Amino acid sequence: xxxxxxxxxRSPLLEGWAAHLRAQSPVAYSVDSAGTGGWHAGQPxxxxxxxxxxxxxxxxxxxxxxxxxxADFQRFDLVLCADRDNLAAVKSLAPTAAKGRIAxxxxxxxxxxxxxxxxxxxxxxxxxxxVCALAREAADGLLRRLARxx
Length: 150
What we know:
Blueprint: E1 2-4, H1 10-20, E2 33-35, H2 47-55, H3 72-75, E3 79-81, H4 84-93, E4 102-104, H5 105-108, H6 125-149
Parallel strand pairs: 1-2, 1-3, 3-4
Helix pairs in contact: 1-6, 2-6
């Protein structure tokens, strides 16, 4: 499970790349994404995120935003957050047993220690392409770590 604030930019890109690369994984896994807030619930990803993903060969247009739910902590083994604010929000909602399964996505995937995926919402095409590239790196790191831990 990938989490950002509104589930229309960063977490859809993270989910899209993880789903796209799933066939290369030695470990079966399911992916989803959500936002800490629900104000975009039911909406597709930001058109700029969709365009950045398509330029990279990934289609995220079928995704729909949703808010993180308590059941997600039981449904998913791992909750990976885009930044420290999302991490704090998710941990504040999580049951005690799930807190050890919540981490920053770039840190957990080995891309960047304590790294954050910047929010491109107020940015331009370059910002969305940068986040898309980080999402690809995170998905690659996810696959490497899952293979090591299998």
